[in-house]
Specification:
The structure holds two protein chains of two kinds. By secondary structure, chain A is α+β, with helices and mostly antiparallel strands. Chain A contains 15 helices and eleven strands. In chain A, strand 4 and strand 5 form a beta hairpin. Chain B has one domain. In chain B, 32% of the residues are buried. Classes of the chains: A alpha+beta, B mainly alpha. At the A-B interface, loops of A face helix 2 and helix 3 of B.
Chain lengths: 442, 81
C-alpha cells in the first residue's frame, strides 16, 4: 500500500501536446473499463496545437444565460413561456413546462425564472453538508491508501450515490480561462471577482456523469426535451454533492468547480468518458449524447483514467445526424473538422467541428428552454434492449466509414427526434424509474 | 424468453428431421440454420424495440430480418425434400 502525503505541491502540467495524458500521475488499469471495441489511448482523438491554444474567456451556455437575464432575445422569459402555454404550442403544455422546472429542483434551487445566474446548490449546501462527519470530528485518522485503491473506492461510491459513470483526470489549466490560476495563497478552491484560484494540492479532477432520459430527450426542442437535459444535470449534480460529502468524510477536500464556471467537456474527454462529436460536445460509447457532466476538484490522490477512441471522429465525418436535427442549422456540415472557431464563444487551438454559437445561444435564450436536439438525435443514443444495438455499436466503432449508411438506417427505423405533433404521446409511455433504461457502464 | 422458445422449436424440428433419417446436404442444413437464426434475431428486434418504445423500429426490424429468415427456411425445406 502506497501512502502519499496530502499537500504535496503539484507539478505544473505543461507539455508540448496538450491532448496527451500528463506525466507524473498513476494511471489505473483501463482493461475492464469498456468493451473490446473501445480503445484506451494516450492522447485524445482531437488534434490540438499548443502554440495556438486560446484560453476561453466565456462559453456559450453562460452567454445564453446572461442574454436571457438581460432579456436580449425576448421581453421576459416568464412572458414567453406563458404565451406558449396559452397558445398550446407543441411541446409547451403546462405539464411539459412544469416537468422541466421540476427536473432541476435541487440543482437550480434558488434560480429565478428570469434570472440567468446559476446559484443552485449553494443555497442548500449548508443544510446538506450536515451529513459530513470528518475524521477530525470523529477523532480518527484520515483515510490512507494507494491511488488505485482510492479511485476504485470513489468509483464504487459514486455509482452507489447515483452517478452513471465517473472518470478521473488531472487539473489542467490549458483548457481553462485566463482568470483561473494555481495559488498557494488559498487553502481551498476559491472564486471571486479577481478570478478562480486552486491550491497546488488540488490537482485531481473527478468527472461525474449523469444520464439524460432518452425518451424525453428526443422530444427536443421544447420543454420535454429541456426536462431531459435538466434531469441529466440534476442527476450528475446530486451524485456530485453526495460524492463530495463522501470524500470529505474520508478527510480530504472536495469542491464543485463546474458551478464556478469551469467547462467539464475537456476534462470528460481527457478522463475517457467519450470523444468530441460533430456537435462539439462529448459523445459517450454507452450513452451517446444523452449524458451530462460535472466536476469535482479534490486533493485525494487518485489513479487517473486515459482518453478513449471508438472511431467517433471518422463516424462523425459522414453521419451528420445532429447537424440535420439542429433547428437553426448551427452545427457544422463540413466533412472534416476545422481549426477555425466560429463566433465569439469558441476558441482556437483544437481541430473540432465548431458550431455557430451565436445561433445556438440565440435559439436557446429565445425559446426559454434548453434545446439539446443535437445531443438527443445522435446515432449513438440507444438503449440495450435488443441485440441489434449490441451488434451495431462495435460495427459503428470498427467500421465507422459506413456511418452514413448507419445514419440512413437510423432514420428509416424511426430513431432520432420525435415529431412535434407526437411529443404529447410521451405522457402515455410506460417508462422506467427516472426515465433511464438499462445500459452497461463503469 | 420467446427467442429461447423459438430456438427450441427450430432445434426440435431439426432433430425430428434427423431422427426421421432424412439426410440432407450440408448446404441445406446451413440454409436452415441461417434462416432460423435470422428469424430469432427478427423476433429479438421486434420485442426489444417494443420495450424501447420504438414501434417503427420494431415493425421494420422484424420484417427486415424475420421475413428473409422464413424464406431461407422454406428454401431449405423445399431443397431438402
Amino acid at each position: 500500500m502506497v501512502v502519499r502525503r496530502v499537500g504535496e505541491p503539484s507539478r505544473e502540467i505543461s507539455r508540448l501536446d496538450p491532448g496527451t495524458i500528463p506525466h507524473g500521475f498513476v494511471y489505473r488499469d483501463q482493461g475492464k473499463r469498456y468493451p473490446w471495441w473501445v480503445k484506451s489511448v494516450d492522447r485524445i482523438t482531437v488534434e490540438t496545437n499548443a502554440s495556438e491554444i486560446q484560453k476561453p474567456t466565456t462559453n456559450m451556455i453562460v452567454m445564453s444565460l446572461i442574454r436571457r437575464a438581460q432579456n436580449q432575445d425576448q421581453p421576459r422569459q416568464r412572458d414567453g413561456l406563458v404565451k406558449k402555454i396559452r397558445n398550446q404550442a407543441p411541446g409547451f403544455s403546462l405539464p411539459d413546462v412544469s416537468l422541466e422546472f421540476a427536473s432541476q429542483t435541487f440543482w437550480q434551487s434558488g434560480v429565478d425564472i428570469d434570472g440567468g445566474v446559476i446559484r443552485g446548490f449553494r443555497k442548500l449546501r449548508e443544510v446538506i453538508s450536515g451529513q459530513v462527519h470528518t475524521p477530525q470530528e470523529l477523532g480518527v485518522e484520515a483515510w490512507q491508501g494507494s491511488e488505485e485503491e482510492a479511485s476504485s473506492m470513489v468509483e464504487k461510491a459514486a455509482v452507489h450515490l447515483g452517478a452513471a459513470q465517473v472518470g478521473f483526470t488531472a487539473m489542467d489549466l490549458t483548457w481553462l480561462g485566463p482568470n483561473v490560476r494555481i495559488s498557494s495563497d488559498v487553502e481551498a478552491p476559491t472564486a471571486s471577482r479577481e478570478g478562480i484560484f486552486f491550491p497546488p494540492a488540488y490537482k485531481y479532477v473527478i468527472v461525474v456523469a449523469g444520464r439524460a432520459p432518452m425518451w424525453a430527450a428526443k422530444c427536443a426542442p421544447g420543454a420535454l426535451g429541456s426536462a431531459a437535459d435538466r434531469s441529466g444535470y440534476e442527476e450528475a449534480h446530486m451524485a456530485e454533492e453526495k460524492l463530495m460529502n463522501f470524500i470529505r468524510g474520508l478527510g480530504y477536500g472536495a469542491f464543485d468547480i463546474h458551478m464556478m464556471g469551469i467547462n467539464p467537456i475537456p476534462f470528460a474527454v481527457m478522463a475517457g468518458l467519450g470523444e468530441m462529436g460533430r456537435m462539439n460536445r462529448v459523445v459517450s460509447p454507452y450513452f451517446g449524447g444523452a449524458v451530462r457532466f460535472t466536476l469535482i476538484l479534490t486533493d485525494l490522490p487518485l489513479a487517473l483514467d486515459k482518453p478513449i477512441d471508438f472511431g467517433l471522429q471518422e463516424f462523425c465525418r459522414h453521419c451528420r445526424k445532429c447537424a440535420r436535427a439542429c433547428p437553426v442549422g448551427a452545427i457544422s456540415r463540413d466533412t472534416d473538422p476545422s481549426w477555425e472557431p466560429q463566433g465569439p464563444y469558441s476558441f482556437k487551438g483544437k481541430k473540432v467541428w465548431f458550431e455557430d454559437c451565436e445561433k445556438c445561444a440565440s435559439f436557446t435564450s429565445s425559446t426559454g428552454t434548453y434545446c439539446g436536439a443535437c445531443l438527443a438525435a445522435c446515432t449513438w443514443n440507444k438503449q440495450n434492449k435488443t441485440v441489434l444495438h449490441q451488434v451495431m455499436r462495435p460495427l459503428g466503432a470498427k467500421l465507422p466509414y459506413f456511418s452514413k449508411l448507419y445514419a440512413c438506417m437510423d432514420d428509416l427505423f424511426g430513431y432520432g427526434l420525435v415529431a412535434e405533433e407526437k411529443r404529447k404521446t410521451w405522457w402515455e409511455l410506460d417508462l422506467p424509474v427516472k426515465g433511464v433504461g438499462e445500459s452497461s457502464r463503469r | 424468453m420467446i427467442n429461447l422458445l423459438l430456438g427450441f422449436l427450430f432445434g426440435f424440428v431439426a432433430a425430428f428431421l434427423l431422427f426421421k433419417g432424412v439426410s440432407q446436404a450440408w448446404c441445406v442444413w446451413a440454409l436452415f440454420i441461417i434462416g432460423a437464426a435470422t428469424v430469432i434475431f427478427g423476433f429479438d428486434v421486434l420485442l426489444g424495440s417494443i420495450k424501447e418504445h420504438e414501434k417503427r423500429a420494431a415493425t421494420l426490424g422484424f420484417l427486415m430480418f424475420a421475413v428473409p429468415g422464413v424464406i431461407l427456411i422454406a428454401a431449405s425445406l423445399f431443397l431438402g425434400f
